[in-house]
Amino acid sequence: MTSSPPDKLAFTLPSGRRRVTPARFGPESRRDRLLPQLIRNCVLDDEGQQCLQVRLGSAEAANPAARALLDTEAGTALHLHRVLDDTEYAALFPRIIGYEPDAAEPFLLYAAPRGVPAARTHVMAATDQQRLTRDLMLALCLLADQGLVPRGVSPATVLWDGARVQLWGLEAMTRTGRPRTPWGRPPFCSPEQRRGEGLADPRDAVWSAAQVLYRLVTGRPGAADRAPADLGEHRALDRTLRQAFAPRADGRPTPAQLLELLAPGAARRVRLTLPADEQRPHREAFEEALRLKRQAPAARTEDGTGAAAGPGNGEVLCPYCLEAIQLDLGELFVTDSRMQYKPLDLAGINNPVRRNDIMRGAVQKCTADPDFPEHFIPVPYLTYGRPLTVAMVGQSSTGKSHLLTQMIAAVTDGGLEPFGLKWQSVNPEQHARFVRERVQPLRSGRVLDHTAALGLDDFARFVESLLITDARGQVRPVAFFDLGGEDLVRTDAALRFLLGVDALIFVVDPALALPLPQLDHVRERLDVEVNRDGDLAFGTVLDRLPKNGPYLDVPAAMVLGKADLLRFQPPVDRWLARPPATSLDPAPIREESRDVYGLLRRHAGQAWLRPFDAMRRCTLHIASATGGQEAHGRYPAGAGPRRVLEPLLALLAMHGLIDVPGGAEALAVGEVPVLETVPREEAQKAGGSAGSSGGGEHR
């Protein structure tokens, strides 16, 4: 260990609390020549605690893929700590001491490794082989029960101290069912994993473990795509692991089956030792809320979506004054070089191509309400039928503007194409300004300024509008409103536009909603506190919307924003790491909604779920507009958005622009289960006392 003066090290403990301590570091090396992580021994001087630091240098940290590897490792280590810390199985994996993922040089701290890599052992004694095999299968069984597949099992990551295994290589973890990507070196990576084919399966790791054991028994590597030719000469290995060398995962035993063969009853003991499911009561509350929503009558319209109908007869609703207007060629304007409006005279323009191009960049002065402040509407907004308006809702500093910017950027990057949708700007000049002033700065890593507040005589204006063409060729203008938090708690005419809004996105700031200890240092930096009464802007907007019946029928999405702050916290860790959706399946959307509902209900309280409780059709989502925290007005690793498009996709589906199995209605409230629609008399005949608990039809 170096004798240089100690550095100050600040990091988050697995409990979520912060720790600052002097630290001394030893020489640095690379853990694997193909991986970006660096490792060095470390002593925390406040307690003399010896540990291992895994970190990224500044050059590696600028690479999003390298940061993603470190995030995977941190998330896996923390998950195992939560699940196994108080059990006998914790010793099978590295013990995490702390982490700092958002620094310029992010790092993890582990307790000193136990044992030496199997790669340093030429041939292992038979008694050690038995214990190592049992421990390795026990570790794989534990991971499989958590839906995890370790892709990095190799002689370099299997440590042995003469008594127990310790399995490293957590950066290579993936989730069961995720698409395989090439990883590892033959023969220790399975044939399917090496080729990146199909979906990850716990039996991928069974192949890897079998290859490690063959190497320890024989002192040489096995074949890369089949069982070793001399396997029959090693009876113990042949008896337990012959099927583990099957070239396809479906031909191999599971970790639990092998563990049962090696240690009967061990797999069952594992399941009994793991902590109980704490989310069950919250899932049940979510399902009950959906049941009540399904029973409520839906407001139906000619398009079958429940959306507010437009004026008709070529008229649309002005998004500002809420009066019916239609295209008037005598009220058209264009901007001059000084960005001032000047009248547009189309009389001398006979070329239809040029005429249409000029009109696309023109605006119409709305005179429907002479008492309303002067306002202008882009011409394409008036020529494609009923527009769809989307409003972002949340207090100041919740990240609404960053989320909306990345959402629109994802659309313009082609994110809607897998769903059969195409886009075009409503007004090219307005769109170019939005990209120049918001998209490009954010993508370059700059923090956007807060949304400017409205003046006393001003009114809400949409910040961007797009023309969305669905798979049937139908075009609809979609306009996005993004008001400052202080404007959303006003109750004067500034919020009148809400009376005509078609969709709402409620953005939840985890620092304000969730009293989790890992968010304390964020609250301290932002000088904010947890608000147990919910977001004041949510209540103001919900109270302003017209209501007809027990629920509001405007489609809505709730988004747990800044989710990168909780990327190692379940269930955020599960959803934030998922790749962007390429098809809209109601089942995972409802599953994500249920998980976010449970997280907020358990930690934030029902006040933060008021939009879900008030809106009949409301999905819940996890998203991060930037992928990390800001430092000095910038995002050190750049702004990497995650799952920003999913809330908009749900809203478009609820408005009928995207077809989904079961229909737009079922997307948010679910399809009616058979048991929910069986009349009392039939239920009693079919199940004896099944209907005796009350409820009758639509239980």
Give an overview of the whole structure.
By secondary structure, the protein is an alpha+beta fold. Helices cover 32% and strands 17% of the residues. The protein contains 23 helices and 24 strands. The strands form 6 sheets. It has a 7-stranded mixed β-sheet with strand order 19-20-21-18-22-23-24, sandwiched between helices. Strands 1-2-3-4-6-5 form a 6-stranded antiparallel β-sheet, covered by helices on one side. Strands 15-14-16-17 form a 4-stranded antiparallel β-sheet, with no helix packed on it. Helix 3 crosses helix 8 and helix 11 packs across helix 12. It is elongated, with a radius of gyration of 29 Å. The C terminus is likely disordered.
